[in-house]
Design brief:
By secondary structure, this protein is of the alpha+beta class. The chain has helices at 62-73, 109-116, 119-137, 195-210, 222-231, 239-246, 253-264, 268-320, and strands at residues 17-19, 26-35, 40-46, 49-56, 83-91, 94-101, 140-141, 150-153, 158-161, 168-169.
């Protein structure tokens, strides 16, 4: 799930039993999944199955749990993992805060695209924007959007987030970011948490997927990004959408999603007429066949009736002789 495998400050090994102080739920550590600015994440076993458990020495997990709760409130939203439990754990006289969440399995977004192809970028970006719209509606900005924080579960394939540590309340300063995906780094705007910040980062996710090694910033800033976007054939179909996003021209994720949907949808006017014509042609051919079959049946019936009548007349003539 998480890619950072730095040294574990909690010194927790496989088989460690974590029992919640208040809810008494038991978690058995399988392995470390990764680490972030606010804590360490472990794969654990519970009586219901696998889960991901995040530990912290600081009282910094409340906002993350509130984000997960916000996702749970939005019907149909699948971006973040479900929150399962929140408690404290006493270890060697110290109290550690933790929460348990759904364990999301699947390849990272980058690995998925490498395996399945760049045609999936636009489709998964549509899903991301749909879920961001739901998150923004709850008053939160994701902040640290990047392929490393996104996993593709399924099939059916769904883009999911594995780290909400950078999520920030609307209007506040973004607390965690990665330079390549940060509009402030590219001179595209401030680091104030607003929907356009996430939309800039979402466009940069698409850019990173076709430039996996990324590239250094030059003095032109956003104009450099526009040039890079136009250079990639894989992004050509919806390059105008990405360019508007890095220029900060979309007020909402829904507005960006609508234009991306239009760009990804083929020109259906001609296609629709062709399909309609083909359907009408098939209907005409079917009706013609039915008429021919019906006429053939009538002709056969007339012949049979005529033969039958002649046969009856023949029998009557024989009886009269």
């Amino acid at each position: 799930m998480m890619m950072n495998t730095s040294k574990d400050p909690f010194n927790i090994g496989r088989g460690t039993v974590i029992r919640g102080k208040w809810h008494q739920n038991v978690y058995i550590v399988e392995r470390k999944l990764g680490s972030g600015a606010t804590g360490e994440v472990y794969l654990v076993k519970t009586k219901e199955g696998s889960a991901a458990l995040k530990l912290s020495r600081q009282l910094s997990l409340t906002s993350e749990m509130n984000v997960l709760k916000a996702f749970d409130k939005v019907q149909g939203s699948s971006l973040g993992p479900s929150l399962l439990d929140a408690d404290d754990w006493e270890q060697n006289g110290k109290v550690l805060s933790f929460y348990a969440m759904e364990f999301i399995q699947g390849p990272t977004l980058s690995a998925f695209i490498e395996r399945r192809g760049t045609a999936w970028i636009g489709i998964l970006l549509l899903q991301l924007l749909e879920n961001l719209h739901a998150l923004h509606h709850q008053g939160w900005i994701f902040g640290d959007i990047k392929p490393d924080n996104l996993i593709v579960s399924g099939p059916p394939f769904r883009i999911r987030c594995i780290d909400v540590g950078g999520t920030t309340k609307h209007g506040r300063a973004v607390k965690e970011y990665t330079e390549f995906f940060d509009r402030g780094y590219w001179g595209g705007g401030s680091r104030k948490a607003d929907p356009a910040y996430d939309l800039f980062a979402s466009a940069m996710v698409a850019v990173n997927l076709v430039y996996p090694r990324r590239f250094a910033r030059d003095e032109s800033g956003v104009n450099q990004l526009i040039v890079r976007i136009k250079q990639k054939q894989e992004l050509l179909q919806y390059s105008h959408v990405l360019i508007k996003a890095v220029q900060g021209q979309y007020p909402t994720a829904l507005a960006m999603r609508r234009e991306l949907m239009e760009a990804l949808t083929p020109n259906t006017s001609v296609e629709k007429r062709v399909k309609t014509n083909e359907k009408e042609s098939r209907m005409r051919r079917t009706a013609h066949k039915k008429r021919r079959k019906h006429n053939s049946f009538l002709k056969s019936a007339v012949v049979i009736l005529a033969i039958t009548a002649l046969y009856i007349l023949y029998i009557l003539a024989e009886l009269l002789v």
